[in-house]
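Recap from last week: sequence in, structure out.
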Amino acid sequence: MSRTAGWCAQAVLACAAVWTGAALADEGPFTPGSSTQLTLDHYSETFSYPDGPRTFDVSEYSVGYYEPVAEDVALGLQGGYLTINVDNDKLASLIAYSGQFLGFMGRYQSTWGDYLNFAAEIRYLWHDQQGQLSGQQSDITWYETYARAGPVLRYGPLRFELGGYYQNNSGNETDTGNVNQRRDISSHGGGAYAGLVLYVEPTGSVALYGYGGARHEVRLVFTREFD
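Predicted structure tokens:
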């Protein structure tokens, strides 16, 4: 079983456990004030190097906070820890990278419809990873600009989401030691996503998303909303 498939299976089991233990009610959608999120994320995408493409295999663990600034609109911060593996590179593939990321987010989530609504999100994130071998230090840094949007269908405690996204990443890899070099890296492209959100209570939810296209991703999100 691949790393992505194994991560997906764990995410599905986690959602199933929450579903089984939850006391589901048919209340209407909660109109959120501030909210916090715990996100577990695994994805792979291809970055362009000067001498050809490289695939990054990324796992992220993050905490986010949103604060409303207008009706149905909120701004937030997100940060956390990540690990990456780089495939098909003579140097980077030998190194296990870990580091941190931090950024800003904005989202729109309409509450005007009983069943059909609309959601959109933008974010700008800074990623910085370090790795080392004997006599070799490597640092990979990139900046991510990302946007997604699509309809949301509500049915009882469930939300079904579909839509599209676009992303642009740019940065560099800096190597020092036995090999000294600096290489620019980048990736861009779009694709589609689908998500299932379960409100286990009026102010708490768990969501599972899948992404295809420029990145292949599985994301599990736990959210708590406040008045």
